[in-house]
Amino acid sequence: MTLNDLRIAVTLLSFAAFVGILIWAWSARNRASFEQDALLPFQEEDRHE
Prior knowledge:
- With 49 residues, the chain is mainly α.
- It has a domain at 3-32.
- It is built from 2 helices and no strands.
- It has helices at residues 3-25, 31-38.
- Pfam families: FixQ (PF05545).
């Protein structure tokens, strides 16, 4: 195995991880949770006090 083979393997693994994250982020199963989490900064409760 040469250094170029290792670079190719790392690139392919990184791309596969990227595609997996995209599929997870855009899945309909997680949509309700993400929409609820997106509203957290706008809630009126002060958690710092």
